[in-house]
Amino acid sequence: MRIKKGFILRTVCGENVIVGEGLDAINFGRMLCLNETATFIWKKAQEYGEFTAEKLAVAVCHEYDVDLLQARTDVKETLDNWTKLGVIE
Amino acid sequence: MREQYYIVAEHLFCLEADDGILAQMANYEPFRTEQSNDALFSLTVTDGGPIQYVEELSQDEEGQDIVCGHTEQGEPVFEFRFGGKTAGWLVCSAGYREGTLYLSGFQTKAAVDNALMIQFAMASATQNTVLFHAAAVSLDGKGYMFLGKSGTGKSTHARLWLQNIPDTELMNDDNPAVRIKADGTAVVYGTPWSGKTPCYRNVSAPLGGIVLLSQAPYNKIVRLKGIGAYAAVVPSISGKRWDERIADGLHETENALASNIQVWHLDCLPDADAAHTCKDAIAI
After folding, report:
1. Average pLDDT in chain A
2. Residues of B in contact with A15 (CB under 8 A)
3. Model-level pTM?
């Protein structure tokens, strides 16, 4: 999986938000607020370019005090939501 | 060809064109200056075209199309069409600091206005400045801006302030500029661009508040904060957000506005009570 072209992370009034600014994302027409974990997942996904849910879950495990099982659940939930909204492919 | 210099929102720019075109620039007269150092951008107007380019995006507003693209060499191009017919092509270089407008001979004045607005918006985006689609009024030394989609009644609401709130003045009816100064204060400026209302005033005021308007069968005002304020402001700002440098510049200004300026959402009727409801909330 990868983040679709044109979606970027911005800090708006201290909060982390995904906005569509590229040519392919200009009609996204909404802003997606991320909590701390989701922000971490986004940044990791960005860093990896091409990523898998498992790779992100491992990264979450390293960063936060959660077991792999919990991390997998969190990552899956986040990625499912992003897929539904069309910000990753 | 002659050069003329103008200052809008404290940005100096140069227009180079023949006398026939310069004679049509009455709306720019209040902004004219003899100063000619450190121009933010310069626009040269000439006959010519068509320009070959690759289309990126077409924006259509009120029978007017602006098609954005780039030449084979990667220079940004903007084509202006009115009722489907091309008035001119703007080709930019050096980070929008230099522009050439090639006129087709149709709707010459509108093409020059569009080219200057676009170059101003693009070149100033990285200089803490944004060009709004809004109506702006001043009262007691402060400026207030009314935003909304086309047809929402921005001009109507501004007029209701003028008619019902003593000492209100119209600063601009369609395209005021806002600049974040070095000390962090936001200032709203009149510009030579004002839509259908001829209001080309070289005035400025500290920005006191921003109000997003929606039509409703009642008058009600609520404060927007944080992301809500940001989301209200962004759609009213001209830009080319798929150009990262411009997007970053616009975001910085938009974030400063959402963080430091009061932003409200007004559901309103086109009546005197709407103006009073609005004023009582924002102009204390």
Report:
1. 95
2. 226-227
3. 0.94
